[in-house]
Amino acid sequence: MNPIACLFIAAALLALAHCQDLSFVAEPSNVVNGTTKTLTITCRAPSNVDADVNLIILLQVDQLKDNVTVPVASERTGGTVTHAKNDRVTAEGALSGDEGAFLTVNISGPTKTDTGKYQCRFAYLNMELFKFSLLNKSIDVTFTEPDEPTPKPVVDGACSCEQVWAEVKNLRETLISENKELRQQLKSYDDTCRVSFTAQIGERLGPQFGSNDLVIFDSVVTNKGEAYDVAKGIFTAPCNGQYFLRLSMRTHQERDSGYVDAAIEVNGEEAARTSVYTTDHMDHYEQASNGLVLTLEEGDEVQVRIQTNSAGRLYGQEYSIFTGFFLSP
């Protein structure tokens, strides 16, 4: 293929990769050794993501070192988590509020190891369309010595063809390198890991559950990757990574009052609990839900178990749903 055509194709791929509407900036973008006091990296959700319609799940800042993704900090439903084992690194953020979803990472006294390529990943769920979206954007933080100021371009009235071709060659090599990095990032999102499922209780009025009974959601709405075992009611993680799990249930109380507690378990250990309680003597139905982001290892099993039951039955079909999907490595 003609080299110029390759150049334009690579440029188009690179432009497509960076067209996401994420605000991701580093201040300053160039760290001067021994001079820069603090490096601040901020990622903000797109302004067109409406928090009233979308469930914002995750904002995460990673550093890319030698084609390895190293988590720095993340903002999840449970709060801000700093992954870096370094007391110079702090983070703050929020998934909702007047300023929208954001995550800010501050690195005090940055060194050369704190520079390089960073990426921001943003995950959210459209609750009207039940559509999951994952956006990402990357930036570069450079490093210079105090006696090595950033050179300014020299403007010359005329230049030779050799100079033009040298610049074209440098640009081409840069695009090829960045395109290679992009392909490696896309390859890291192995499609075999990108599973999702939604299951519900098939009967309109489900069976009577006792304490410690496993709830088997026996009617599958979707099961991409077949990671959910409909016969056992167990979801098995196919890969290491972060997953979103959610339990929604509606109960029918056969007495004037009562409650049903159910828990999302990982390998038999409780991870989240949902409780439905009603004292309404006329309307014996009540709804509750809970969800969370979990870090699972390949082979981990997730299921729903009744913890306590006071004369209640689950109302099935679209009212009681167990759902989950893979977020990121």
TrEMBL record:
The reply on keyword Transferase is no
Keyword Ubl conjugation carried by entry? no
Where in the cell is the protein located? Secreted
Start and end residues of each C1q domain: 190-329
Cross-referenced InterPro entries: C1q_dom, Cerebellin_Synaptic_Org, Ig-like_fold, Tumour_necrosis_fac-like_dom
The Gene Ontology CC terms held by the record are: extracellular region
Entries under SMART domains matching the protein: C1Q
Transmembrane stretches in the record are: none
| Listed PROSITE patterns | C1Q
The residues the entry assigns to the signal sequence are: 1-19
Give the UniProt keywords, A-Z. Secreted, Signal
SUPFAM superfamilies xrefs: TNF-like
Protein name (database record) = C1q domain-containing protein
Organism, by scientific name, is Littorina saxatilis
Identify the taxonomic lineage of the organism of origin. Eukaryota, Metazoa, Spiralia, Lophotrochozoa, Mollusca
